[in-house]
Request: fold
Amino acid sequence: MKRYTLVVGIDRYKYLGHLAKAVYDAREIHALLVEHGQFDEVPVLLLNEQATEDALRQALEYVLIKQGKQAEVLIYFAGHGFVAGKSEFEQQGYLATYDSKLQREQGELVSAEGSLPFVFLNGLIKKAELAGLAVFLDCCQSE
Reply:
């Protein structure tokens, strides 16, 4: 069975606070997967400014849709994650990309421009014809 992976690590953001070890963790996971993962391609690795919203969308589509048909896919993301929405009934979860820009109203996150919504990821997963999927999210909300 074919196997593919995407590894993302962002600890330096254009508009958000920085993290200490997301890139280190992503590099370590990537190295482990290259050495022991038996993947059909070298695992895709996006770090810091490479992990824009557009780049992450394209990489997810590539790994899940183009390569993932009847394959096993592993996704690892280390970086900021958060929930935003104008009310508790409109809130959605997001992965912060390098170019994420958050808007606050009265101290609450209300929008997440340039971020990757979980509904996009869920839509890709639903569309993909995967044999197996593992998603590891090493996220914190400390922006």
Remarks:
- The longest strand covers residues 72-84.
- Residues 3-79+118-140 form a domain with the Rossmann fold fold (CATH 3.40.50.1460).
